[in-house]
Amino acid sequence: MMMRSRTENTAPTSTSTYHRTRNAFRIVSIAALALAASSLPSSPLTSRAVAAPPTTVGFIYVGPKTDYGYNQAHAEGAAALAKVPGVKIREEEMVPETVAVQKTMESMINLDGATLLFPTSFGYFDPHILKEAQKNPKVTFLHCGGLYVPGKHPENVGSYFGYIDEAQYVAGIVAGLTTKSNKLGFIAAKPIPQVLRNINSYTLGARSVNPKATTSVIFTGDWSMPVKEAEAANSLIDQGVDVLTSHVDSPKVLTELAERRGVFVTGYHANQSALAPKGYLTGAEWNWGKVYKDYFEWLQAGKSYPHLLRGGLKEGFVKMSPYGKAVSAATKKKADDAKAKFMAGTMVIYKGPIKDNTGKVVIPAGTEEKQTDVALEKMDYLVEGVVGKTH
Amino acid sequence: MGVGVSLEPSKVVPAPAARVAPIAEVNVGLGAAIRGAMGSFTVPAGAFVVALLLFGVFIAITGRNPLAVYYQMYRGSFGTAFSIQNTLVRAAPLMLTALATALPLRLGLVGLGGEGAMVLGGLGAAAAAVFMGGSVGGHSPMAVKCAMLVAGAAIGGVWIAFAGALRAFRGVNETICTLLLNYIAIALLNHIVEGPLRDPASLNKPSTLPIGDDNMIGNLPGMDVHWGLAWGVGACLLTWVLMNRTTFGFAARMVGGNVRAALLNGLPVGRLIVVATFIGGACAGLAGSIEVAAIHGTANASLVTGYGYTGVLVAFIARGNPLAVIPVSLLLGGIGASGGLLQRVFDLPDATVNVLQGILFLSILFSETFYGRSLKELGLFKRRPTPAAPPPALQKQPPAVEGAL
């Protein structure tokens, strides 16, 4: 009896691939079993080569796999990993960040024989993953978004994340050139550094091509609040905003609302263009499939893997959605230029002088804060051009 | 003889009437006690079986094999040693949050405030630990743990007692009141955890300062389950004794049975309501402190898990009886524990478990009508027609007068 309202489940196209893969696995395994059974009486036992059993990889999501957002991005990555030969994946969704996730991890290890786990929600790290990692030293736990500290955290734990604010910067360029009212809107969950970084990158990108653009921010207070997100979207559109974006777990509701009200929207986490065929400009998406496949290869080869893994557009951890119909050719060129700079490694978003929206200088002239700079992980300001407060 | 009225009374043979036993005979004695106990067990057990069958129909409609699903549910909840631990861990908070609804239910109040009391109890426990300085404050771990549990229980109790007082002295509907107070409690938690009590080092997940590893509640000896389970069972037993073996409990149940009779007898109804809701809320607040002290080690938005609402379900299935809360919590804990396995083996969505809980809830509600009635009374078996014996009203009387006029 959960009192959280959930957006409707609509199956995206990616699960059919997963189903086909899973069914193919079943057919192949049954055929192999039949073959083995038919040949058993006649052959000596010693000369058969036994294929290694597939590695079971477990994925744990905090919300539904079909949320057109954070969890779907991970599920799509899992589906990509499932296509790799020798991999069997087990997924569990809607696991809250409490003792339930510890039990889910133990269940996957004990009952499913998983040797590699990807618990994907931020809140799973402390204390749940740390506790389970100590109890199961032979299993590898790779967490999305955590801050792994060598020496303090166990050896069989790693954390990975992507600099999706690079993709938001490019999306901001597209938004800044497409807007007619020069008002952009950002619906955010909580004013934590990861979210503020996205808001700031979006605004810096927009203002780099359109200095008159402003971003109005509304914080809903939590990661999944469909009603509040819809109200925020309506309120922003009533104020004249004509391009919306977001950092919430599932942008589904506000994307559909934007399409109904005829404004543009740039996506986040996953590709929501199916929900807004006319208004979807582009989006900042995760590309977890690459990260998962890399990890699996490293572990299969027995190589040591980086415990604190980060990457952006260049490393392929994040990607842009294909451009929508409403994006003009000139806008596409500007956005592609910026993307090329990211790929070449020459683009620095946080290059001084940068002032926050109260007028204070937060990055002085001549200072560059590259993506790996620790100062960016503690961000607590909103840059000039953002209408809103962090608290 | 001569003319005259015969003095012999006419022979009226009474028809064999159905023998109706007087009420006093049926409801006392060992037979009645056994029937009562059996009824308390057989009716909910029957409802559970019916719910499982309906769930099997639902599973068959989705195209899976119901028997395979039943087997995996058993395997995931009670099938292996690991599953049993899983079930116990999930049942522990439910036992406590269920009492926040079960106790007021005996007084005739329907309260849904377990979630809010639990959340604020957890916040109170974390605040108490912060106030005592965590692991560096110089207080012994036992003192810090006691302070956390007491603070959590007190805050939870006051929260629900507030709703109880509004009901007792101002007639505010306690269902709506406690339900809306839940949202206020969650908003308060978010506000305080992200504001005054925020740990500056908790960048991306705002939390209070950690209570320190020494101050965490450990596991029961030999098990993988924390002490919260023992306190849950203990709280259920104590509240059952309170409700069924003390004068306070008797008075409270009288308020639940007939408020006007209680008032006319001079019982302090308002005070009884406030005290009962305080005790129920204190149990839910204790659940919150145990969540903080045994699982998280800090208070943050992860405290809002829905245990309070599942506790409401447990309380209703247990019909407000604190002793029954224990097995029902284990049942719902088992259903929750097997949910993950259903997802992974059959690719069913997580909401499948909610479907089963809902069917179980409805089935229990519909079975209310069966309590205290025999199968014959319910007309479930056709009565075999007895050999013809016309009722007395229609029987012809033999003529009273014999003889010529």
Description:
- The complex is a heterodimer of chains A (391) and B (405).
- With 391 residues, chain A is α/β, with parallel strands linked by helices.
- Helix content of chain A is 39%, strand content 20%.
- Chain A has a seven-stranded mixed β-sheet, with helices on both faces. In chain A, strands 2-1-3-4-5-11 form a six-stranded parallel β-sheet, sandwiched between helices.
- In chain A, α5 packs antiparallel against α10 (329-344).
- In chain A, 49% of the residues are buried.
- Chain B is an all-alpha fold and 405 residues long.
- Chain B has a domain at 86-331: ABC transporter involved in vitamin B12 uptake, BtuC.
- Helices cover 64% and strands 0% of the residues of chain B.
- Chain B contains 14 helices and no strands.
- In chain B, α4 (81-106) packs antiparallel against α11 and α4 (81-106) packs across α13.
- The radius of gyration of chain B is 29 Å and the shape is globular.
- Chains A and B meet through β2 and α3 of A and α4, α7, α11, α12 and α13 of B.
Strands of the widest sheet of chain A, in order across it, are: 12-10-9-8-6-7-17
Number of domains of chain A: 2
Q: Greatest interface and its residue counts?
A: A-B, 40 and 44 residues
Q: Which value, in Å, is the CA radius of gyration of chain A?
A: 23 Å
Shape of chain A: globular
| Secondary-structure content class of chain B | mainly alpha
Radius of gyration of chain B: 29 Å
In DSSP terms (H or I, runs of 4 or more residues), the helix count of chain B works out at 14
Quaternary organisation: heterodimer
Find the count of extended strands of chain A (DSSP E, 2+ residues).
17
What characterizes the major β-sheet of chain A? Answer: 7 strands, mixed
Instruction: Name the helix and strand elements of chain B from N-terminus to C-terminus, one letter apiece.
Output: HHHHHHHHHHHHHH
